[in-house]
Amino acid sequence: MRIHEYQAKEILSNFGIKIPMGGNAKNPEEAFDLAVELGGRCVVKAQVYSGGRGKAGGVKLVEKAEESKVEASRLIGSRLYTGQSGPNGLLVSSVLIEEPVNIAGEIYISILPNPETETHIVMLSNFGGVDIEELAEKSPEKIKRCEIDPVYGLMDYQARDLIYAAGIDIGKRKALFQVLSRMYEIYSKYYCSLIEINPLAITDIGDLVAADAKILFDDDALYKNNELLELRDILQEDPLESIAREHNISYVKLDGDVGCLVNGAGLAMATMDVTTSSGSGP
Description:
Elements: H1 5-14, E1 22-25, H2 28-37, E2 42-46, E3 59-62, H3 65-75, E4 79-80, E5 90-91, E6 95-98, E7 103-114, E8 119-125, H4 132-138, E9 143-148, H5 156-165, H6 173-189, E10 192-203, E11 208-210, E12 213-217, H7 239-246, H8 265-277
Antiparallel strand pairs: 1-6, 2-3, 2-6, 4-5, 7-8, 7-10, 8-9, 10-11, 10-12
Helix pairs in contact: 2-3, 5-6
GO molecular function, one term: succinate-CoA ligase (ADP-forming) activity
GO biological process, one term: succinyl-CoA metabolic process
Organism: marine metagenome
């Protein structure tokens, strides 16, 4: 299950990780009020289940509170088309109004499971930002990794070694150690399938602030934290998949013309292969 950026940041804040001041607005009037509280100058960010929002026009820096109202009016109720949204785009139901962060440096940090080794992976880079995918493809050596045994969890020495290997400035290592430890605490408590901060901004005064964040939860473990279900936004989901979820059915909408009713991942893949080889599409 996915959640919005503002919800992910609220969770980070509850665990002591710094986030920009601001709040979520469901209409232009709320956006204006939040912008006034921030002094007028703010960032307006469309809240959808997708990355690449900035390149799609979903993130705007405005200088005055009135401009935030205009941007909120433009975004709320519209559909945002990104490289991850699919051809129909995603409905923008709210916008996050935040104070601008004066960024002097950017760090990428994430934790996710590794099914092949039955461990968790922590990834850290001193080169965070919007082009992290390109960095992973062209310069993977700049993203440092650490395998975590789920029995023992993230050990202090592993966190320190990873921070050192990533070349983090010595003056920021202690603060980053705290951020990493708290991220793993969230990851473990809520049975996350991903927790990511990109970028973890190094501000001009030396603070570490989560400028953007993403958290995904393992659907099979949601019963252990029922309060997370309240964070779900069904408007961001495919309608058919939402109906199936309500009936505890695993349903994935594909683009073909043949429906596949299967039991087990291996059988599902074999069925799709047979369907494709016969000239149809699953």
